[in-house]
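Readers of this paper often ask what the protein records in our data store actually look like. Such a record has a labelled line for the sequence and another for the backbone structure tokens. The tokens are whole numbers drawn from a learned vocabulary of local backbone shapes. We quote a single record here, exactly as it is kept in our systems:
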Amino acid sequence: MKKPVRNVLTAGVVLAAAIVIVSCARSSGANDTAATTAVTTEAETAETTAEETTKAETEAAKTTEAETTAAPETTEAKTTEAETTEAETTEAETTEAETAEAETTAAAAASADGYTFVVGDVTVIMGAEAAPILEKLGEPEKTFEQDSCAYQGKDIVYTYKGFELSTYPADGKDCVASVYVLDDTVATAEGIRIGSTADDVREAYKDNYTEEFGVYRMTDGRTELIIYTTNDIVDGIEYLVVTENE
């Protein structure tokens, strides 16, 4: 027996509707998957950007820290360099001052009346007032005094390292009478010291000496310089003032 046409049409409509529903469901699922994928991708992108930002900020912080650390070291280095330059400048000025003082001392010795005895930065001139010279020489190792044979007052002997300085009274003040060299730690202005040779003496004083029995005498102005030798070796040096009484 044949089925009614109405029933067949109804079944077809139902089947078509079912196909449409399935298609919509599939489409909706695909759209949902795409949307989910898009959201996930966006989140991952945001996370990656955040990580990169954090990394950049960390690197920037490290750079700032390095610069901060380097800044004091650089400042300290510049300060040290400035202090070194200042020290070198001070040293140069000191050297220049010492050179000028030495030149002044040498000039004083050269322009003095007669031979002079120079020890350190002190120039001793025979017949000069003793007080300023003794003040520059400082405290002696010992002193000895006795009544003067030629003047009213005391003759005084001041012993220093390497030499003795004697004074005599004149016009109410003490004046330098002599200097006697004790050892080779000091020398004449011309470079002769205990232990020098007779040839050294002759070379230093040229034709300005007289010699007898190994004793060399040089006179200039108010100073007599006497150099004693034994077997052509200097073993005594003495400066004496030439006074009017002589």
Remarks:
- Residues 1-31, 33-40, 102-112 have pLDDT under 50 and may be disordered.
- Strands lie at 116-119, 122-125, 142-147, 154-160, 163-170, 173-181, 210-212, 215-220, 223-230, 233-241.
- The first strand starts at residue 116 and ends at 119.
